[in-house]
Design brief:
Blueprint: E1 3-10, E2 13-19, H1 24-28, H2 35-43, H3 47-64, E3 70-72, E4 78-80, E5 86-92, E6 95-101, E7 106-112, H4 138-155, H5 163-166, E8 167-169, E9 177-186, E10 189-200, E11 203-209
Antiparallel strand pairs: 1-2, 2-6, 3-4, 5-6, 7-11, 8-9, 9-10, 10-11
Length: about 210
């Protein structure tokens, strides 16, 4: 079993994490796919992408205890075919994550802290955001900002959002876990979200709901 987390992070939000240790055949045996799903799976030419795709379905089945199907809208936002849960999905390196809720919109993002994110920080950090000067924590602080903005992007339906101009993370002290405030501001829209983040091994995970 590769589920490393299966828990309610709020009373109505269930989070799952799956560490990918299986090969294609093992994961394929864990899921039951419709013809259109098989067509999508085998359209991926990269074997790692196929395994990632299967891990999402395997994790979803573990969380829901049913054979759930994922469909996508034109913005590639995922939904369950029976609308039993709202869903958000993220994957990085060897970890897959899903956040589910029956009554709330959800957003989750995880990233493996592998590259020098400071080189692209100017593309997503705006003038109202503050990054620590502690050299040991700068990379993690930037990754929390990036993951938080990805989670906001997902919960706000991925429409007309510029990460630098329309999303802001209020200043916070970086730690191994905590709460932050994310803001979506776009024209007449001004929504604030309480977001939770955590460091797990070398991954940053951020999730939110509304």
């Amino acid at each position: 079993m590769s589920v490393v987390v299966n828990e309610y992070v709020t009373p109505d939000c269930l989070m799952g994490l799956w560490e990918i240790k299986e090969d294609f055949d093992t994961l394929y045996a864990k899921v039951s796919l419709e013809d259109d799903e098989k067509e999508m799976l085998f359209s991926f030419k990269n074997g790692a992408r196929q395994v990632e795709w299967l891990s999402v379905r395997a994790l979803l089945n573990e969380l829901t205890q049913t054979n759930s199907r994922i469909i996508y809208n034109e913005e590639h936002k995922p939904f369950l075919h029976d609308n039993s849960f709202n869903i958000s999905i993220s994957h990085s390196n060897q970890l897959t994550s899903i956040l589910l809720s029956k009554n709330h919109q959800v957003g989750i993002d995880l990233e493996y802290m592998s590259h020098r994110i400071s080189k692209i920080a100017h593309k997503f950090i705006n003038a109202n955001e503050v990054i620590t000067t502690d050299k040991a924590m700068i990379k993690m602080h930037l990754y929390v900002h990036w993951c938080a903005k990805e989670a906001l992007y997902k919960i706000c339906d991925k429409k007309n959002i510029n990460f630098k101009e329309n999303l802001t993370i209020k200043p916070f002290e970086i730690a191994n876990e905590g709460s932050i405030t994310g803001i979506h501001h776009n024209g007449d829209i001004h929504d604030e979200f309480t977001m939770k983040y955590q460091l797990r091994d070398n991954y940053v995970i951020v999730h939110c709901n509304k």
